[in-house]
Amino acid sequence: MSNVFIAFQANEESRPVVEAIMADNPNATAVESPGMVKIDAPGHLTIRRESIEERTGSRYDLQQLHINLITLSGHIDEDDDQLTLSWKH
Asked: What is the DSSP letter of 77?
């Protein structure tokens, strides 16, 4: 199974997003580099709006991810509530 990944700028805006991803995807691993956090996951990874809102305490539009997004790998399936990266077979 190939990994999917997503990488964000390492800053205060990305911190709750990364925390939410790690909480919702127990098989994911985060690697911090200077200025960047890359999250790898085997097969698929889901980002949930609700999980981010729990950490920020305010409404979050998943389109805000793109402000701090550096790169990603995998097929994207998204709606207003979640964004999933996966490798479809």
From this structure: E
- pTM of this structure: 0.93
What's the pLDDT tens digit per position in 10-22? 999 999 999 999 9
E strands, 1-89, where? 3-9, 29-33, 36-42, 44-48, 69-73, 75-78, 82-86
What pLDDT, on the 0 to 100 scale, is given for residue 1?
75
| Phi and psi based region of residue 49 (left: phi greater than 0; alpha: psi -120 to 50; beta: remaining) | alpha
Q: Any idea what the Cα angle at residue 84 is, between residues 44 and 40, rounded to 5°? A: 45
d(CA 44, CA 1) in angstroms, rounded, equals 10
